[in-house]
TrEMBL record:
Cellular compartments annotated: Endoplasmic reticulum membrane
One Pfam assignment: PIG-U
Lineage per the UniProt record: Eukaryota, Fungi, Dikarya, Ascomycota, Pezizomycotina
GO process terms (BP): attachment of GPI anchor to protein; GPI anchor biosynthetic process
Ranges that cross the membrane: 55-78, 99-123, 143-171, 183-216, 236-263, 275-294, 314-335, 347-372
Protein keywords: Endoplasmic reticulum, GPI-anchor biosynthesis, Membrane, Transmembrane, Transmembrane helix
Family: Belongs to the PIGU family.
Pathway(s) per entry: Glycolipid biosynthesis; glycosylphosphatidylinositol-anchor biosynthesis
Protein name per the record: GPI transamidase subunit PIG-U
GO cellular component: GPI-anchor transamidase complex
InterPro entries: PIG-U
Organism of origin: Beauveria asiatica
Keyword NADP: no
Length: 391
């Protein structure tokens, strides 16, 4: 549970949630302990469960059910056929599809998914909300999709960046009898729904914490300012340990700008394939968000089999897969050498996290290349089978 590969400061394992829950049950501000930084509304949920030390089975059942709900949503996404055929684009390779049951099983039996479930990290709730937001958008329920996205954003903040491609996806998949023809009106409706749900959630959090807005600084503020530099599998923590304080604010802005810069470009370039834009963005967030864990990678890897028809176009799948596997095994070993054995230093662990990020970067860039090459084969049939350069 305590490995930073499995859980980190913003996706807590159950032990840290239990500390916040103990303070909450004793009418003490759960953030006074200095280690709990999750949104307040998670506390009433966990307070309904029996004591995990005496009855761990109920907590295990909760996490298993959440994973099953995520797999169900992923199966619905696969069965929609959106990965191969959209409203504005039809892939010439769409016949090579994978059943939703297989994709759900691949997600559930992924060792990283199992590790996340065993680690009892709260990120499984964010994963479930994101997948249901996409599934609802594909089923023609845009308002339900926005509600799910609002819940995901409340839990982890970064999912709000998925709003532009999700709105495009929901607009394309509207049910004919309830369709809103005007794109600006539809966008305004979606934005209003997300804002309304977030307002309600924040209001409930305000009431739960004794009419105090202090939870904002303790939950979302820590992500924006990176005030906790606990080691994790991301790229931020080591850099900001080494950076001089006068330059900290500047580079925080640069890192956040870099993370958000992909959203607009991908949403515009992949306008015909909004699900592909969402999948690529999930991979980018798993690499570049301030406090990532393997749960973020699990979500991206769960979306990847949707594009089985594009696998022949991917160029570095073996190298990327081998790199991810290599770093998955060595990550815990290097962390142990640094923290417990005392025979290494921070460079050991950060070096292997760089390899981990490299493997994910290869997968994300390869998927983006395959999606664009698939489009090119329709626009320029004379280039089918020919080598091209990626600019």
């Amino acid at each position: 549970q305590t490995l930073p590969i499995v859980s980190q400061k913003l996706t807590y394992h159950l032990g840290i949630v239990q500390e916040g829950l103990f303070l909450y049950n004793h009418n003490v501000d759960p953030y006074d302990g200095g280690v709990f930084h999750q949104p307040p509304l998670l506390l009433p949920l966990f307070s309904l469960l029996p004591d995990v030390r005496e009855w761990p089975v109920f907590t295990a059942i909760l996490y298993i059910l959440v994973d099953l709900l995520s797999a169900s949503a992923l199966s619905s996404i696969a069965d929609s056929g959106e990965a191969g055929q959209t409203k504005h684009y039809t892939s010439p390779r769409r016949a090579k599809t994978t059943s939703g049951v297989f994709i759900a099983a691949a997600f559930l039996f992924n060792p990283l998914t199992i590790a996340t479930c065993l680690g009892r990290t709260t990120s499984v709730f964010t994963t479930c909300a994101i997948l249901h937001a996409i599934a609802k958008a594909l089923s023609g329920s845009p308002l339900s999709a926005m509600v799910a996205l609002a819940f995901a954003s409340y839990l982890s903040m970064y999912p709000i960046l998925l709003l532009p491609p999700l709105v495009i996806l929901a607009y394309d998949r509207q049910a004919a009898r309830r369709a809103i023809a005007s794109a600006p009106a539809f966008t305004a409706t979606c934005l209003g729904t997300v804002a309304a749900i977030l307002t309600i959630l924040f209001g409930m959090s305000f009431a739960l914490t004794g009419n105090s807005w202090a939870f904002f600084a303790r939950t979302y503020g820590i992500q924006l300012t990176l005030s906790d530099l606990t080691p994790n599998v991301g790229l931020w923590w080591y850099f900001f340990i080494e950076i001089f304080d006068p330059f900290r604010a500047f580079f925080l802005g640069v890192f956040w700008l870099h993370l958000g810069a992909y959203v607009g470009g991908l949403s515009i370039r992949l306008r015909k394939q909004p699900l592909a834009a969402l999948s690529v963005l999930l991979g980018i967030f798993a690499i570049f968000k301030p406090y990532p864990s393997i749960a973020d990678t699990t979500l991206f890897l769960g979306m990847l089999p949707l594009y089985r028809h594009l696998f022949p176009l991917m160029r570095y799948s073996f190298v990327a897969s081998a790199t991810v596997l290599y770093s998955s095994f060595l990550g815990p070993a290097f962390y142990h050498l640094w923290i417990y054995a005392g025979s290494g230093n921070a460079n050991f662990f950060y070096a292997i996290t760089l390899v981990w990020s490299l493997g994910q970067s290869l997968l994300v860039s390869d998927l983006a290349f395959a999606v664009l090459r698939d489009e090119l084969d329709i626009e320029r049939p004379d280039l089918i089978g020919k080598e091209i350069k990626q600019m």
